[in-house]
Amino acid sequence: MKGKVLVTGAAGYIGSVLVRRLLERGYPVRAFDNLTFGGESLIGVYSLPNFEFQKGDIRNSVDMAAALDGVHTVVHLAAIVGDPACAKQPELANAINWDASVRLFDLCNATSNVKRFVFASTCSNYGKMPGDGFLNEESPLRPVSLYAELKVKFERYLLDCETRQDFVATALRFATVYGLSPRLRFDLTVNEFTRDGTLGKELNIYGERFWRPYCHVEDLAQSCILVLESAPETVRRNVFGVGDTDENYQKAMLAEELLKIVPDAKIRFVSKSEDPRDYRVDFSKIQKALGFKVSKRVPDGIREIYGILKDGLISDPYSKAFQNI
Fold first, then answer.
1. pLDDT tens for residues 35-77?
2. List of residues 6+ apart from 106 with CB closer than 8 A
């Protein structure tokens, strides 16, 4: 029988997809979340026999001790996510993304039944790249926001910390996410561009020449499963970027892809000479080491967001329910 997986932040954008993928593969899942953005994303799996839910706060040691009971693997997604959200609530971001994450990691290391720990980091750690090349796991990290600073800080803690010999910890640097999720967000570049273009709102694009890698939410979820199913010696105390090298886009390129699907989208480019985040990433490490391949690309994500909006599946796509701030 497969070991039980604890997913923190399970009701979130990535977590609610990951929970479903784990259940499909036969894993017992304990979903942990404080339900800041509600729990509707988990209703569809709530009655499944391998699913259990625990409401709690990762800052609460009692909650976390209970959450780890009988768990084999922890996938740690819970966080204040994104530059704007962390800038708006810096004390909370420090308390959750650093203090509570360190306590959780230490507790996992001290809990003998927990054998694996997968941490959701970010390619935002790269900040602004020098020159026109590609960055990878060996490149210097230049975080330019509190969100990325805390991710870098915890990554280093995970990689440098002395742990039990049978405890396997891995950090995954996610590319910028997009696509459909039970907890849908429209404060993400691809989803936001598609929403505004589809609904006839003028789309103002700032810094159209700055690069960023993108990856579908389903593929990011799949990377977590791939890591927990990989040989310990391959992923122990290691970091992998998650994405596809061919999926690096400038914002102007995203606009071009949008126009292929929504030809009447209203787009205006606004001059901006400086952006703190500008980077292209080479994702060959995870492909070569673990055999990771993406199943969807940016045009696929645009089409699926366009489809649900044109079909009227969401009554108010501009509701705050679809944002992290």
1. 999 999 999 999 999 999 999 999 999 999 999 999 999 999 9
2. none
**Confidence class for position 129, pLDDT limits 50, 70, 90:** confident
Question: 227-250: per-residue pLDDT in tens?
Answer: 999 999 999 999 999 999 999 999
**Alpha-carbon span 18 to 80, nearest angstrom:** 18
Looking at 1.20.1540.10, 3.30.230.70, 3.30.460.10, 3.40.50.720, the CATH number of the domain 5-177+214-242 comes to: 3.40.50.720
* pTM for the whole structure: 0.96
H or E stretch including 76? Answer: strand 73-76
Residue 209: phi, psi to the nearest 5?
-100, 0
- Burial of 162 by CB count in 10 Å (0-12 exposed, 13-18 middle, 19+ buried)? exposed
